[in-house]
Amino acid sequence: MKVEVLDRQGKSTGRKVDLSDDIFGIEPNEHAIYLDVKQYLAHQRQGTHKAKERAEITGSTRKIKKQKGTGTARAGSIKSPVFRGGGRIFGPRPRQYDQKLNKNVKRLARKSALSLKSQDKAIYVVEDFDFDTPKTKDFKSFLQSLGLEDKKSLVVLGGLNKNVYLSARNLKRSQVVTNSQLNTYSILNANSIVLLESAVEGIESNLTK
């Protein structure tokens, strides 16, 4: 699949890059996408939630009232979950939410997500560029030249580029990652994917192993 290469100002360079049909043109597997996104979101959970249960509540152990003759239900402890301030029944405990997923399924999910974006014509290829210093204004100008200033965008770099990364860090609608950090959730969460030329080779190398 041939895609036109744009420059930093959003103008055509007169060149085209060939995107592999094995990655950007497959039949999307929705179940693989579901499993990968589910695992990603599960891994974002810290699992540090905790509520005190009956045995962890500080309080008197004396019997509150006599067993019979009060006309109400019997009660043996102020720490009972039925009383205000008592322990919580089956409260949350710290736990790990990690999920295992086969590498081939994760790879298929990323291919499927990229293919979906390709079908929607939401993938742009831009020649490699850099900023002299980190500047949000310069990155916003770059997005405006592509018509993406008001859309969620994912910019994929061929390698670590500190100036570009720092320039985009304050923008809520834009995310910058390297080709090795690319994941299914980020691809689907963005309206448009901007691939730098050097990232295309890295993506194809990572997803054809």
Automatic annotation (TrEMBL):
InterPro entries: Ribosomal_uL4, Ribosomal_uL4-like, Ribosomal_uL4_dom_sf. One of its GO terms (molecular function) is structural constituent of ribosome. Keywords: Ribonucleoprotein, Ribosomal protein, RNA-binding, rRNA-binding. It comes from the Bacteria. Belongs to the universal ribosomal protein uL4 family. One of the primary rRNA binding proteins, this protein initially binds near the 5'-end of the 23S rRNA. It is important during the early stages of 50S assembly. It makes multiple contacts with different domains of the 23S rRNA in the assembled 50S subunit and ribosome. This is Large ribosomal subunit protein uL4. The gene is rplD.
